[in-house]
Amino acid sequence: MNRNLLLVLFSLLSTAVFAQTGTVQGTVKDGKTKESLIGCTVRVDGTQIGGTTDIEGHFNLANVPAGTHKIVISYVSYKTREIPNVRVESGNTTAIDTELDEEGTSLQEVVVRANKATNTEIAVITEIKQLKPIAVGISAQQIQKSQDRDAAAAIRRVPGVSIVDNRFVLIRGLAARYNSVLINDVITPSTEVDTRSFSFDLVPSNIIDRMIVYKSGSAELPGDFAGGIVKIYTKRRPDQNFMDAGLTLGYRGNTTFQTVQSQTRSGLNALGLWDASQQIPTSFPARSADFNALNPLQRAAYARLLPNTWALKDLTLSPDIRFALNLGRRFDVGDVRVSNLTSINYSMTNQFSNIDLKLYDNGTIANAITQQYNDANYARQTRLGLLHNWSARFSPGFTLEWKTLFNQLSTTETVVRTGAQVAEGYDVRSFSERFENRSILTTQLAGEHSISPLTKINWVGSFGYTGRWEPDWKRARYLRPTGTTGSDGQPAPFLIATPNDPTPTEVGRFNSKLHEYVISAIANGEHTFGNPTDREPNKIRFGVYAEQKNRDYAAHFYGYQAVGSASAAKQRDIATAFAPENVTGSQGSFSMLDGTRDRDAYKGQNTYLAGYVSGDVYFGPNANLTLGFRGEYNDQGITSKLNGVDTRLVNNKIFSPLPSVNFTYKLSDRTNLRFAYSSSVNRPEFRELAPFNYYDFNLLADIQGNTTLTTAKIQNLDAKWEFYPSPNELISVTGFYKHFTNPIESYLLFQGNGLAYTFTNAQSAQNYGVELEFRKGFQNSASAFLQNLSVVGNVSLIKSQVNVGDIVTAPDLSGTIQQYDIRGIADTKRALAGQSPYLINAGVYYAAPNSGWQWNVLYNVFGQRIFTVGNSQNPTVYEMPRNVIDLNLTKQFNKKLELRFGVQDLLNQYVRFAQDFNRDGKIGSDVTSQTAGADQMLRKFKRGSYYTVSAIYTFGRRTVIP
């Protein structure tokens, strides 16, 4: 293998050495103003070799035959310049720096209707280069090459970004709560009930124009961030009429064609919907006290109104399916240019995992197992999505847009758990049958106005809705003493565990619903001082942002109660145990109790008002200083019942002054030094504040909010060196430092019966590191293969430390706020939760435009990071690294049909969560022995490699609109 590799390298080197071509490059400027000219046509006379100048006036012509040539440079309204006798030597580069003079005669009026390209790699690199804050990004062009299915898969290609649970984004190792996400410049609400997170898998990749990740702050950006601010831009308007459709079939190892157990739900689940039978009948008493005051016979009568849908069925899983239909139209209505872009997406995917789950005694020796389970976890997910955008250009100075994005999603998850409570001496068989539905809508009306060549204004009015339902989540647990047998010598039967009082850990039915409405109004302005055609004109920017958010959440839990011993009913299998004949309320049967508490429902209100102003100060052509100030007022409240009375439990009103400074120094036309400072905040979310208690069946953990949380404050420092060898190439090194006051973190309560998490403010924290990024092409190579090759990579090295303090303010299991002295029982100093010490992304892309072939190989890995913070009784849990390799191959036929083949997660390494038993701040290689220095494997499973085949067909022919 080594010999073959050397031969290949030698062949490539030989090709370059003996090539009879060279390169011509240079810059073109205005002869009068000395400003760079963008878009000049540069060609080698008598050949087909040519190109255009980029934003810096630079051009690069590769593979020019050795010899003497005439170079011709032309540009609208400028005199064409011919440069004769340009000598090109084999393997060398000839440099030309020249100027063009304006035409002496006046031109007639030229009307140009065109859209600025924003979705190419060059466009994104150019945008990042021009931005004042430090930023990175990814284009639709690169996403298409990578065949990433959604925004979550695509954004992990960005420096300093990693993904948790295939949907939540971590930037610079900081948890998802430290990021702000905007879609088309409007802040998105959290898509999760229990955490502040945006689920990036909700955004299909085919509707994305580009994604920009801001690493430093500025006055124009929201102040609620620490990791970064992600702006997702959906496609705006087509540049041509088109209609195409795509179909993808997916095969997942360990899942597709396997037989699994699933629950019975209505046929509308395929569209992310459910029927009325899965809802609590309206005849049920609204208050738990009224329900529980009834006698067992009356309560059982209500219980029989709930359908007996506990039975599981065997299901053989078909391949995943994804379908997309995209339509673009442009037409004129009088003098108004109207365009429409519509995209419809549907997907149905399956995921099965055998999950090994262990809990430990955590006494004097490691790996002393107290509970040991295998979870057969099957989840089917569906998504129906719609993007519908209209744009009307009334004049060059006025454009109106209406953008709508809607997602209807569902998850049908079935978990069959088998194992043992080793310490108590019980065999266990548990069931969780859960269905979740989400509806997410955002619609925006936006306008862009050019008041004059010096003044521009844009505005957005937005409405957002998030709905989330968990109708009839059924849970049950069977127990039997380990090793016991009946009189017939057979193993003793399992019995359903029915506590006297309902508890989420035992048998019952859980329902929840959430409605959240967000209304936003945004206005931004920009005024240029002096000549707007100056290369670096002075500008002032200003704007306001107003948002009103209202959430209504309610949960209801009903637990089954045994009347008498009910041993015969308890022995029945899950399909028949709760049949109507066994739920009568009489002796030997089941009745029902309402376990709902007042704090299981809450209302959240948040008013957010912000205003900003920023301006540029130029110190000559090479130095630019941008000063900004943003003021944010936030009024956050939580209302819940206390002793049956609606009570406002949280009343957080805070004004945050947020200054920012961004300085750029141009070492050359292609090299910049950037320095940035910004002050930012991190506010708690509704769920983190609400006293509601939620049970996570998969993690065997309770999660509840903390009404005492306060806003965290962050100071951010960044420095970046960036070099642009060519329009689509980049090399950069970034260093950063962040200091937190009162950071918000998940906290494990110190209690002996199970796991219980809440949210707390630590005293302080710091986070610092370095990021390296490169994008390299080989356009100047004499090898045709290398000309079509590009390499992309980034590495992030990060370190953090949080100072928790000696005293933690948090609720106990009853919701009562307590002061916990954690000295000796928990780490007072450690790494931030969710922070990875390193992140690595790399990719090799090949595209041969003439043949229609494209392929790429992509790699991603993150360092071990804290998944949940622990204590001496339940040590901290770390998520372990996984090496992920993706392969993609694309072939295009006649610009009509495109076929794609992809393999995601080729290595299929284990997803692993381990406990730091020896409390040394890391997980060692020894996770099985019972020595004091060992660590413990908590959760382990494989997702399976994923193979996809896609076909995309364009109907008719793409019609370019002049």
Explain how this protein is built.
The structure is a single chain. This protein has 962 residues and is mainly β. Among the domains are: 19-100, Immunoglobulin-like, CATH 2.60.40.1120; 121-240, TonB-dependent receptor, plug domain (Ferric Hydroxamate Uptake Protein, Chain A, domain 1, Beta Complex). It contains nine helices and 52 strands. The strands form eight sheets. It has a 22-stranded antiparallel β-barrel. A five-stranded mixed beta sheet has the order 8-13-14-11-12. Strand 5 (67-75) and strand 6 (78-88) form a beta hairpin. The longest helix has 17 residues, at 2-18. Mean pLDDT is 85; it is low at 1-19, 105-114 and 958-962.
